[in-house]
Amino acid sequence: MSNSIQNRLDEFRQQRRVQAASLIISVFGDAILPRGGRIWLGSLIRLLEPLELNERLIRTSVFRLAKDEWLRTETHGRRADYVLTSSGRRRFEEASRHIYASHAPLWDRRWRLILVVGELETKAREQVKRALFWQGFGALGADCFVHPSAELSSVLDALIAEGLADSLGALLPLFAADSRSAQSASDSDLVRRAWDLGALAEAYAAFVAVYQPILTDLQRDNLDEVSEQDAFLLRTVLIHDYRRLLLRDPELPEVLLPADWPGQQARLLCKELYKRLEPLSNRHLDKLLCLADGSVPAEDAAFAERFSQYDPLGS
């Protein structure tokens, strides 16, 4: 196996504290959702144990995800499958549009605003704020949330799915005026106020520094010495690291981003490395991913080559 792959997997294993629930979410979204969104717990344990996540930690993390309504259980005799809930599936499908896209979205030069115009209790206000941040909104003060391209109807549907229907009456969604002129200074100022892009740029640069040597090695040596298991493990860690970056990224259109923005380099790097790992890692999943009844779910053809599927510019 490539030394760079081994080094990355060893670095991951040696982390003082792996957020197992977050890693399991990454695995569900990338590997399990395309195969029906369900898995036998024993199979999940076998897939993740080589990353030195022990059985007890995996069981505890899956139980918490079920408690948070990401997953539900379906029993088959003495075994049980963990299955994505409808809200969990919606979250993953929304995330997929960001993870597997090859370009930042185009901008129609209209800002989407959600204003808090009614009374909200402190807990409800924090829940709304967290849900909007999850969808990439920035904050301008305590009562104004902004995004350049979100579909407001989908945002409200997402709040309802998060159990926040009672808070909608306190919110006012609206569009700012359409501007067809060149980007204005006020746009740049709004971006600076709503998002901390400096810290995010550093995180993207660090991602590139970690994974570019691995891609370079694979371009030189191909995959001849990489096992199916290690291809799956690296694919998992790659998507997990990239997903964690996207959780912090508002996915601003390129016209609103600083020059030489490293996010696009990270996106293309992730795409190229993922596509090289995908065939080997899928063979590993064919062998280890199974359901409680012993059946092996095939990958849904609709998810094949997802990086191309979500590429709005066709590149």
Automatic annotation (TrEMBL):
Q: Which organism is it from?
A: Dechloromonas denitrificans
The Transcriptional repressor PaaX-like central Cas2-like domain sits at 107-166
Q: Where is the Transcriptional repressor PaaX-like N-terminal domain?
A: 20-87
Q: Which domain of life is it from?
A: Bacteria
Q: What is this protein called in UniProt? A: Phenylacetic acid degradation protein PaaX
Looking up InterPro entries in the UniProt record yields: PaaX-like_central, PaaX-like_N, PaaX_C, PaaX_trns_reg, WH-like_DNA-bd_sf
GO-annotated biological processes = DNA-templated transcription
The lineage is: Bacteria, Pseudomonadati, Pseudomonadota, Betaproteobacteria, Rhodocyclales
| Domain (Transcriptional repressor PaaX-like C-terminal): residue spans on this chain | 195-286
Q: Which Gene3D superfamilies match?
A: 1.20.58.1460, Winged helix-like DNA-binding domain superfamily/Winged helix DNA-binding domain
Task: Identify the Pfam families for this entry.
Answer: PaaX, PaaX_C, PaaX_M
